Amino acid sequence: MERTLVLARHGQSDWNLKNLFTGWKDPDLTEQGTAEAIAAGKKLNDMGMKFDVAFTSDLQRAQKTCQHILDGVGQSDLTTYRDLALNERDYGDLSGLNKDDARKKWGEEQVHIWRRSYDVPPPGGESLKDTAARTLPYFITDILPQVMAGKSVLCAAHGNSLRSIVMVLDRLSREEILEVNLGTGVPIIYKFNADTTIASKEILG
Fold this sequence. Notes:
With 205 residues, this protein is α/β, with parallel strands linked by helices. It has a single domain (4-203), classed as Rossmann fold. The chain is built from eight helices and six strands. It has a six-stranded mixed sheet with strand order 3-2-4-1-5-6. Helix 3 links the parallel strand 2 and strand 3 (80-82). Helix 4 (99-106) packs across helix 5 (108-116). It is globular, with a radius of gyration of 16 Å. The model has no long low-confidence stretch (mean pLDDT 96). The active site is at residues 10, 88. It catalyses: (2R)-2-phosphoglycerate = (2R)-3-phosphoglycerate. Belongs to the phosphoglycerate mutase family. BPG-dependent PGAM subfamily. One of its GO terms (molecular function) is phosphoglycerate mutase activity.
């Protein structure tokens, strides 16, 4: 039985391009981001990938990435679930700020701690630990059962919500996950064993 999960971070967004903290804000994809999502769909189509169900966040950059991928594999009308549990980490008071301006205001070291620590949230926002506490229950109750039922599942979301899932799937420590960066529009293909352990992982970079 094939048990396949494809994780895909959204393509470049307008605020990625402008070096802004995005979080739960809802900017669109750039032309490059759209091209990245279309390319992801083509790569998966070239592999003969077909999906049974798709999941995405409540934000348009992930939703549009999901749709471009589905268009690319010839499944434009596939059942797709949207949930804010898969939203990007909430950057709180940093949302909308230029990252360089934030460093000038709070200092390089403090901003680095907020961005890269596991459990220190920015003011009014979420840490990676907080994001995982929101994302993982949804993954366990809604996404993983579909995979374990022998389905091919697409999950198009965000850098931090997906990192919280990758942390569990790859059995990474709190320190190890901080070194993991997911490329925009780059699919990661997991194949699962019957006991939910990972049989294989492939990154379509």
